[in-house]
Specification:
Elements lengths: L4 H4 L2 E6 L1 H18 L6 E6 L3 H8 L7 E7 L14 E3 L9 E9 L3 H11 L5 E9 L12 E5 L5 E2 L15 E4 L1 H4 L3
Bound molecules: guanosine-5'-monophosphate (5GP).
Guanosine-5'-monophosphate binds next to strand 5, helix 4 and strand 8.
Length: 186
């Protein structure tokens, strides 16, 4: 077993281990493969947080598909959403007339997804659906419900499996709650 203790020491607890994530990603893959059979969707990952989830998920999708990415500005070093969203890397290909599945790491206030979905809708896709790994429904500021969700989580700041704090912890293969001592007072 790889030893991640140099990062794990900053967690107050582990929420989902590798096995739990793998099982859930496989279930999502089966569900989405069924729903998108014959639709040849374009799967759009939101960088950088969805990177690991996206790469695991698409390998569980048994249907023909294309992938693309957008990058949006994030929180920076803070753990609270500013509500300010900016596309810093746009899609490579048009999505007009395509079925689109957006893959996001986590939906919190919903502001990021709301902005992105409105933006994507304006480009004339056949459909747009959302798959998130994690959902924090208690923090929602706009009415948005993901079509596919890995896990609902409480109002805690989590890291690992692609999710960062100040660009760290993305490479931990599990998801944990970041201890408040790491970011409080900053
Ligand atoms: P929203 O716009 O829904 O408030 O925030 C979405 C984005 O905020 C996510 O894509 C993610 O980058 C960041 N975010 C929200 N909650 C968390 C969290 O608990 N941990 C981490 N690492 N990022 C989060």
């Amino acid at each position: 077993m790889a030893d991640f203790s140099a990062m794990e020491k900053d967690l107050s607890s582990i929420l989902f281990n590798e096995k739990q994530i793998e099982t859930r990603v496989r279930e999502l893959g089966e569900l989405i493969s069924r729903d998108y059979s014959g639709k040849n969707p374009v799967v759009i990952g939101i960088l950088k947080g969805s990177l690991i989830f996206m790469s695991d998920l698409i390998r569980r999708l048994t249907i023909p598909l294309n992938i693309d990415y957008v990058a949006v500005s994030s929180y920076g070093r803070s753990t609270d959403s500013s509500g300010v969203v900016r596309i810093v890397k746009d899609l490579d290909e048009p999505i007009e007339g395509r079925h689109v599945l957006v893959v996001e790491d986590i939906v919190d206030t919903g502001l990021t997804l709301r902005y992105l979905l409105d933006n994507l809708q304006s480009r004339g896709p056949l459909s747009v659906a959302v798959c998130v790994l994690l959902d924090k429904p208690s923090r929602r500021k706009v009415d948005i419900k993901p079509d596919y969700c890995g896990f609902e989580i409480p109002d805690e700041f989590v890291v690992g499996y692609g999710l960062d704090y100040a660009e760290n912890y993305r490479n931990m293969p599990f998801i944990g709650i970041l201890d408040r001592s790491v970011y409080e007072g900053k």
